[in-house]
Amino acid sequence: MEAKVSPQKFIVPIGPQHPALKEPGHFEFTVEGEIITGATVRLGYVHRGIEKSTEDRNWVQNLYLLERICGICSHIHATAYVLGVEALANVTAPPRAQAIRTLVCELERIHSHMLWLGVAAHEGGFDTLFMYSWRDRETVMDLLEGLSGNRVNYSVNVLGGVKIDVDEKQAATIRKGIDFLEGRTQYYMKVVTTDETFLGRTRNVGTMTYDQADALAAVGPTARASGIARDVRADAPYVAYPDFPIKVITERGGDLAARFVVRINELYESYRLVREILDKLPVGELTTRVPRRIPENEAISRVEAPRGELFYYLKSNGTEKPERIKVRTPSICNWATVMNFAIGLKLADMPMILAGIDPCFSCSDRAVIINRKSQSQEWSWEDLRQYGIKYYR
Amino acid sequence: MNISISPLIALLFFPGGIFLLGSGLVYEYIDRKLVAQFQNRVGPRWFQPLADIIKLLAKEEITLAGVNPQLFVALPVVALAAALTAALYVPMFGFQAMFSFRGDLVVTLYLLSMMTLCSGLAGANSVDRFSIIGATRTLTQLFSYEAPFLLALLGPAIVAGTWQISDINTYAMSHTWLILTQPIGFIVAVIGLMGKLELPPFDAPEAETEIVSGALTEYSGRGLALFRIGKDVELVIGLTLVVAFYLGGLGNPLVFLLKTLVLRLVTAGLQSLFARLRIDQTVGMWWRIGALVALVQLLAVIIGLFIGKII
Amino acid sequence: MDITEAIQTAQDLLNLWTSGMSTPDLSRLDVVLAPKDLKPAVRILQKAHWGYLSAITGLDHPPLPASPDGKQPAKDGSLEMLYHFCEGAAILTLRVSAPYARPAIPSICDILPYATLYEREAIEMFGATFRGTPNTEHFVLPEDWPSGVYPLRKSFTGLNKPQKAN
Amino acid sequence: MTQTTITAPSTWQTVFDQVKTWARINSPWAIHFNSGSCNGCDIEILATLTPRYDIERFGIKLQGSPRHADVLICTGPVTRQARDRLLRTYEQMPDPKFVIAVGSCAISGGVFHGSYNIMGGISEVIPVNVFIPGCPPRPEAIIYGVVQLLQALKK
Question: Which residues contact B16 (CB under 8 A, 6 or more apart)?
């Protein structure tokens, strides 16, 4: 973690190697006196040049590449890509395929939210909740494995439809699993809203007000926790969401505790959706034909990933290979929001805000080099935190 | 029960060195097993701590550049020595303490906090950011739980009228359990013990997700092994102290085993119940609640004695 | 408001540039703009609270030699930036293109501060220049990336891998 | 250790070596490094900690600092940026150290093979002892890989 010291730069290097899990990032703030005037983030440790690789693979191979952008929400990436290609070739998948896609989308949302719940608790040192939530997450992983044969990267989608079918026996096991999970979620809701030490770490931490979130284009649960009713499943319903409408869940608080509550309420919403889809699963075949060469065209497909809005732009030039595929993942939105949300705030608030917005970013400890005009001191994260506490005493 | 064995053997083998290290490992195993069971995991096998220690002893020792090498090597040894000497004054395994003199309670507590001091110094000694931060956290936490823990142990000392651990032990054995007469003192003592051993909710100094592993980040091989054994020994001594004072003294090994295991169960339960407190929260909690409550308990005891004398 | 309403309000807002408007499908509206019109258009959208900037996509149009039968004239290469704004189900795309020679597009970071990450990505992937963007450091590419090499250009065919470490 | 005369190792030496290998087999501490992986393998590695698989039964503990670990579990096709960090982490680990490459990306760059920004597998950067194929490998496969490593140590 070499420290790049240049005037007016206040560098928070987050080590690429992190004990728990998260992707490595690298923050840089510009400080004038107490107020932060500029903040930026630098990725790079996880950049695999995917958009360039899509240009030398044909449409079918790209499906397997784009599924592996993110291990936790691989199905949503595949769905967005497949919807885009079907729009390019103006083909629509049969209703049964759309419903199965929605079913797996919701199961993946349950899986992702429970994972985040465990990891966020682990970040705060609450390992028992981490163990419990990841033990219960195994149930939804079994359901997904029963459906698609793989715990992660289930590759259920095919251009023009789905590869798997849901028979009555599988539907029964899914319903049983969902009932068990619903019971457990009530327990988590109780823990998250009543446990004193947990609330001590999450209440009014990293609060983002409604207009701040609106002005900075926040997406996903982070936006909904600040009161913005923005959810692509409701605004621009795709796959089978038009026939299975969802209720957008928003919270007022805008702090980390509100984000926990929003995500757990979304779990309830997903359980309801899964049951509804299983009851009213349309009958019909599973795929339609999609030509190998997609005619020259442009398409945009937006889907709601567990962490926010996922944006795909596809351009075809009539050959077997796409001309351009642009993927804008929700985390870039979250980071962009945070970087600008930090401007104008006091240096002393930074530890809370960084830990608050998305626990997956409060990675390993941050060494902070503060460049006041005259000299640059090297503070540790702890000094920054003590500075914050002293500042407010 | 007092058995007369020549001091050398007592020091090296029986209640002293090897046996104590062994019991430290056993208690660490019990702790990891209980916490795992609470998180309904299977937990490690019985010889796990022993395997960990031997493996660490057999590993390559890396001394850092930019670190004072003598200090780097000496600190773990001093830490373990402090912990072992503290064991002499405590009635280990229900036998009489080997050496005891008036005021050995203070010496024992001093030696135990020497142990934490050494790991704090070890962290401050190295260049690596994480260990410096770990060191500051260890030392801030040391100052925060030391006072209430001492006050909590003073209660029984005043009631027993002496500062000698073995006398307090005999007093506790003969009278009603002090946990009944001084419940608050007992609670503060148990929580103080968890603070001293840096068990979770108070494990900010070595928070794995925040500062890699705190003050001991740079240690590997022998240094780390010595620190870990030191912490295990400190664990056993802490348990015996609190049991000797509050749970009606230690008559014989069986009673000792029973009571310490019960206390071990309580601490393991508390460990898996709470999230890790931020360092400023722990310090705040100790000074605002811990110290005050311990003081109130102390006053209650003194007033009680005073009234007792008048009637 | 539903899709047709949203598209309608967008068309009224940007009535200055109706010449470049087209609706490729029900829920999308494309507006071709000259680089100098970009800022006023974004300011209008922001003032009217019409949706939010969802992404900036870069497109590379490599130079085309004149076709042998002389029908299409030789076209020199150009970079095209697509600004996607989303309001409910409607997607408005502002298309701004600039030739390789002068790839200067005004930066919209002063209006929409969160656009800086997207602009940085476009800068390092396509070599576009955004006049007035606050930060031009690498966003995803490594520090030791040779300058002047833009991976998402069609002309880029891969770096020679550095030799194995040890 | 200068070996003056090649004598059959004294019984003390063999006993000592046996105890050493026994200890090494029974408490392999691991550290996890994500050199650009898509997180699929990482969450499977973390899943091995959870109650259902619980690798603590074998004595494997996920450590924070490279100094404390003997086994480096790394995932992902080494991206150019993460390359020298991976090297530095590997060098920081004390001596008897082993490397496990988890997932097909770590073996050969997997589905991202040929991209300009990745180096291919982990073995392009550091010597690897055990490869665990799969995208992502199941937690049982990861545990089986670690057990294979421990068997190899026995010999």
Answer: B10, B84, B87, B88, B98
Is D46 inside a domain boundary?
yes
Domains held by chain B: number: 1
**Which residues of C fall within a CB distance of 8 Å from D128?**
none
Pairing of strands C90-99, C78-87: antiparallel
- CATH number of the domain where residue C84 is located: 3.30.460.80
Q: Which residues, at least 6 apart from D4, have a Cβ–Cβ distance to it below 8 Å? A: none
Whether C contacts B, i.e. 3 or more CB pairs less than 8 A apart, is no
CA distance linking residue C116 with residue C128, whole number of Å: 13
In a domain? residue B17: yes
Tell me the two tokens of residue C101.
């020679």
pLDDT tens-place string over residues C51-77? 888 888 888 888 877 666 666 666 778
Query: In whole angstroms, what is the distance from residue D52 CA to residue D32 CA?
Result: 20
- Structurally, chain C folds into a number of domains equal to 1
| Cα-based distances in Å from A275 to A103, A141, B15, B57 | 9, 17, 64, 56
Q: Which two tokens stand for residue B23?
A: 């019991």
C28 in a structural domain: yes
For residue A4, the model assigns a pLDDT of: 34
* Per-residue pLDDT at A334: 74
Range of the domain at B116: 7-310
Instruction: Write out the residue limits of the CATH 1.10.645.10 domain(s) in chain A.
Output: 50-328
Q: Is A235 near chain B, with CB under 8 Å?
A: no
Residue D50 lies in a domain: yes
At A276-286, the pLDDT tens digits run: 999 999 888 88
Between the two ends of chain D, the Cα-to-Cα distance in Å is 22
ipTM topping 0.85:
no
Domain ranges, residue C51: 3-10+19-63+76-131
Strand D61-62 to D71-75 pairing:
unpaired
Q: In a structure prediction context, what are the per-residue pLDDT tens digits for chain B, which is 311 residues long? A: 455 667 777 667 666 678 888 888 888 888 888 888 888 788 888 888 888 888 888 887 777 777 788 888 888 888 888 888 888 788 777 677 777 777 788 888 888 888 888 888 887 877 766 677 777 777 888 888 888 888 888 888 888 888 787 788 888 777 777 777 778 888 888 888 888 877 777 776 666 555 556 677 777 778 888 888 888 888 888 888 888 888 777 777 788 888 888 888 888 888 877 777 766 777 787 788 888 888 888 888 888 888 877 76
List the single residue in B40, B136, B207 with the smallest CB-CB distance to A125.
Answer: B207
Residue B94's region, left for phi above 0, alpha for psi from -120 to 50, else beta, is left
Q: Do C158 and D80 touch (CB under 8 A)?
A: no
- The answer to whether position B289 is within a domain reads yes
Total domain count, chain D:
1
Name the residue with tokens 């190295």. Answer: B126
Residue contact B212–D26, C-beta within 8 A:
no
Q: Which of C93, C114, C134 lies closest to A336 in CB terms? A: C114
- Condensed to tens digits (0 to 9), the pLDDT of residues A65-78 reads 888 888 788 899 99
Q: Which domain holds residue D42?
A: 28-150
To the nearest whole Å, the CA of D35 is away from the closest chain C CA by 13
B2 is a domain residue = no
C77, C61 contact by CB (below 8 A): yes
Q: Please, which residues bridge with residue A44 across strands?
A: none
CA quadruple B281, B284, B288, B290: dihedral positive or negative?
positive
Confidence (pLDDT) at A101: 92
Output the pLDDT for position D4: 54
**Residue B35 resides in a domain:** yes
Q: Which residue has the tokens 């075949």?
A: A285
Subunits with 3+ C-beta pairs closer than 8 A to B: A, D
Top CATH class, A50-328: mainly alpha
The full length of chain B comes to 311
Q: Does the beta-carbon distance from D117 to C141 stay under 8 Å? A: yes
Q: Do B48 and D68 touch (CB under 8 A)?
A: no
pLDDT value for A369: 33
